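Deliverable D5.2: sample structural annotation.
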Amino acid sequence: MSVQNVLSLIKEKSIEWVDFRFVDLLGKAHHISVPAVEVDESTFANGVAFDGSSIQGFKGIEESDMVMMPDTESAYIDAFTQHPTLIIMCNIFTPDGERYDRDPRGIAQKAEEYMQNAGVGTAAYFAPESEFFIFDEVRYETGINKSYFEVDSEEAFWNTGRKEEGGNLGFKVGHKGGYVPVAPTDTQQDIRSEMCRLMMEAGLRIERHHHEVATAGQGEINFRFDTLTKTADNLMKYKYIIHNVARQWGKVATFMPKPLFGDNGSGMHVHQSIFNGDTPLFYEKGGYANLSEMALHYIGGILYHAPALIAITNPSTNSFKRLVPGYEAPVNLVFSKGNRSAAVRIPVAAVTPKGCRIEFRTPDSTANPYLAFAAMLMAGLDGIKKQIDPSKLGYGPFDKNIYELSSAELSEIRSVPASLDEALDALQADSEFLTEGGVFSQDFINNYIELKRSEAKAVSIRIHPHEYSLYFDC
């Protein structure tokens, strides 16, 4: 969409405000709204100024002036504002016109450019499956003398005896019993459908939606793949719509990986492939799962760099509450066709040559999508460049149910890091694949590690409620 097309859209839809947005290191969106009557060609040429020192992980107060440069291709109409508003995603630049090397969206674009300049392919396609919970209520507090959380859902199995419903209507979702039941067990068909309707109005191609495995309102909506940066934009749009529709319905949505103890968590399985024009480069008939040698090398790069990669794709302390055996979490660094217990799965059902792809199942939605997709692409490209053969490194293929292996067999399989600190240690030791072509700067990586270490420390020094159960009577 050209600048003129955006300006025409503003007039055609009687837009009153233009909402310019950017994304911080943690993957959170920020915005500045400008009256539509003040937006013209110069706005797109000169950008919108903001204070970078007020954004965590960006600039110091002595060099705080920054500029948002709008990307007209990202424009869509906000479904939640009373006054007609157009949303436009932006890249971040310094006042002298240089790309800001800590801008996640800019890093995503540099990863795409690096792949193209290396002659690997013309486009990398991504499709995330971002799971979420829709709760009726959430309460939490942490302080010097108390620490707790509590969530609730009308469909949760722990509410079979609840009286507050005015006569309990039953049909609760059992523990791990929530995969695709129909109503009345699935109480959230209409709210997910409303989310999908607004996503389609905002330009997403929706493929399906359904209830997920966990009790208490776990769901999933799948939207169609696109190129790396566009998919990251779409995921930001996806989360924005889910959060706000839930709020309109008097509920609350969360993409937190493990909000419930003892039931399945929420992941973000990421499907990936590379094309050269219209030609799929991951397909080769007759190969393992019809994968090309390039695809296998890409998998090799993902699995070889996985410990460091996970610091970016699973960047929260809560991520590692999900990455434990027994809850469909892919903790084992192997690849397999159709096997959901592997970190890398190759879908084989109803797959065409153009649909041939790999699926990295470890990530979750605490990840900044621009950084996570860029890091995955860089790991895969390193595998292609170095011709990393995953089979020779012991990464599979592994077509057994890994969760049913003996301890001796499991000891032969490399696992994901056990904590955020371990993942950050791995990133500190293995980051050269990210800095190739200047995609990630070393300054960015050092700053990112420091920011995430502070999160890990903030959690580790606080008293956990379960410690009272274990130790109060000592």
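Annotation notes: The chain has a mean pLDDT of 93. The domain at 123-471 is CATH 3.30.590.10 (Creatine Kinase; Chain A, domain 2).
The annotation will be released with the project's public dataset once the embargo ends.
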